Amino acid sequence: MGVQVEGGFHSPQQSSQKKKMRGKCCKFLMAFPILWFLLFPQLLLSEENSYVRQPAGQLVITPHGRSHSEPQQVHISLVGTENMRVSWITEDKHAVSVVEYGTKAGEYSARAEGVHSSYQYFFYNSAKIHNVVIGPLEPATTYFYTCGGSGPQFSFNTPPSRLPLEFVIVGDLGQTEWTASTLKHVDSSDYDVLLLPGDLSYADSQQPLWDSFGRLVEPYASKRPWMVTEGNHEIEMFPIIYPQGFKAYNARWPMPFQQSASNSNLYYSFQVAATHVIMLGSYTDFDTQSEQYKWLQSDLATIDRVKTPWLIVLLHAPWYNTNQAHQGEGESMRQSLEKLLYLARVDLVFAGHVHAYERFTRIYNNKADSCGPMYVTIGDGGNREGLALTFKNPRSPLSLYREPSFGHGRLRIVNETHAYWSWHRNNDADAVVADGVWIKSLITTKACSNTPDIQDTPNEEL
């Protein structure tokens, strides 16, 4: 990894005294190379090209500019194949949990009522959290809607029922200047569903930051479904008082876990246009005797791969990682669950946690395997902690592309056999496609098409 210092240390115009001072400074920095990372992270170059990476952006606090009765923090998520959950918050405790919607702007032919809740976290009392499930809805259709009978009109597009289908995948989002840049780049090109493998608001128990995050993402999350799973920054556990954690996350971002027979909002699955997506929980039990393991085994057994040729998994802590950051944190989960995914012929596994981008080849059990999933780390959405700059060297032959830069990914599933994955690096006002690869569905690959019955495979054989 190179270092680019503009002007160098030995300009002929400098005085001899300045030369000596800079010479001493240079020797000091060379003696302690870690200081380069602390003092000049923006000057470190990518392994792949000469792009100069940027430092972490400043925190963006998004204020509430509407009345107490008007909806804020509006976001939507899929519920089954024909319904959508609309979630929002009002400061008015008397606001109703009602959504009016229709296919023409300003004309609402349907109405649905839902539920509301609130929660307390130490001295913080949340506003009223509304959740309304609407539908049945037609695929690939634009719907207009209002929340609670007041406030602005919103709209969303339902995903198609058939391929092609496009996902946006972005992890470790946060709410910084780089988050805003990532979201702007995501919004510059259409897509169907956004997938987020953990670390949403980076509130870390500062509950008002959950509200700020909700307002920041509303322009995007109110018009395309956001499907999320938890990261370590969602835990917000406190001994004795909040021993279970995830109080704010579960209240604010309910996912359709019941529809996939899960008993926890921390792991679930859903189906969309010939694609089955599984959202796993890195921060709840996952050993072979756990509820999550048993649920995953059962969920994989229900998938008809003739009708569903694409199988995708998301989780937070990566199982494969050549970055120095968070080494080995996903290993115990890998040892418990990896063979289930391999036997099911999972096509791709996306993870966050590491604040960099890395794409691996197809892998199983730490070896290249043409019938294993392709692993991608994409924890570079815009977090406040900065980038994970240091990768292990020499590079593992399993790692095909790695770069510590902010950005987002897109998975366009073109048809039953082929999809295209691309990673879009944030580069000032533009998003630059820095990495891309065509992917073939494993179940349509002759050598990988024969899969055992997972439900009938004893745990000890896994």
TrEMBL record:
<keyword id="KW-0325">Glycoprotein</keyword>
<dbReference type="GO" id="GO:0046872">
    <property type="term" value="F:metal ion binding"/>
</dbReference>
<feature type="domain" description="Purple acid phosphatase C-terminal">
    <location>
        <begin position="372"/>
        <end position="434"/>
    </location>
</feature>
<feature type="domain" description="Calcineurin-like phosphoesterase">
    <location>
        <begin position="167"/>
        <end position="357"/>
    </location>
</feature>
<feature type="transmembrane region" description="Helical">
    <location>
        <begin position="28"/>
        <end position="45"/>
    </location>
</feature>
<dbReference type="InterPro" id="IPR041792">
    <property type="entry name" value="MPP_PAP"/>
</dbReference>
<dbReference type="InterPro" id="IPR039331">
    <property type="entry name" value="PAPs-like"/>
</dbReference>
<keyword id="KW-0812">Transmembrane</keyword>
<dbReference type="InterPro" id="IPR004843">
    <property type="entry name" value="Calcineurin-like_PHP"/>
</dbReference>
<keyword id="KW-0378">Hydrolase</keyword>
<dbReference type="Pfam" id="PF14008">
    <property type="entry name" value="Metallophos_C"/>
</dbReference>
<protein>
    <recommendedName>
        <fullName>Purple acid phosphatase</fullName>
        <ecNumber>3.1.3.2</ecNumber>
    </recommendedName>
</protein>
<dbReference type="Pfam" id="PF00149">
    <property type="entry name" value="Metallophos"/>
</dbReference>
<feature type="domain" description="Purple acid phosphatase N-terminal">
    <location>
        <begin position="71"/>
        <end position="158"/>
    </location>
</feature>
<keyword id="KW-0862">Zinc</keyword>
<keyword id="KW-1133">Transmembrane helix</keyword>
<keyword id="KW-0472">Membrane</keyword>
<keyword id="KW-0732">Signal</keyword>
<dbReference type="GO" id="GO:0003993">
    <property type="term" value="F:acid phosphatase activity"/>
</dbReference>
<dbReference type="InterPro" id="IPR029052">
    <property type="entry name" value="Metallo-depent_PP-like"/>
</dbReference>
<dbReference type="InterPro" id="IPR015914">
    <property type="entry name" value="PAPs_N"/>
</dbReference>
<dbReference type="InterPro" id="IPR025733">
    <property type="entry name" value="PAPs_C"/>
</dbReference>
<comment type="similarity">
    <text>Belongs to the metallophosphoesterase superfamily. Purple acid phosphatase family.</text>
</comment>
<dbReference type="Pfam" id="PF16656">
    <property type="entry name" value="Pur_ac_phosph_N"/>
</dbReference>
<dbReference type="InterPro" id="IPR008963">
    <property type="entry name" value="Purple_acid_Pase-like_N"/>
</dbReference>
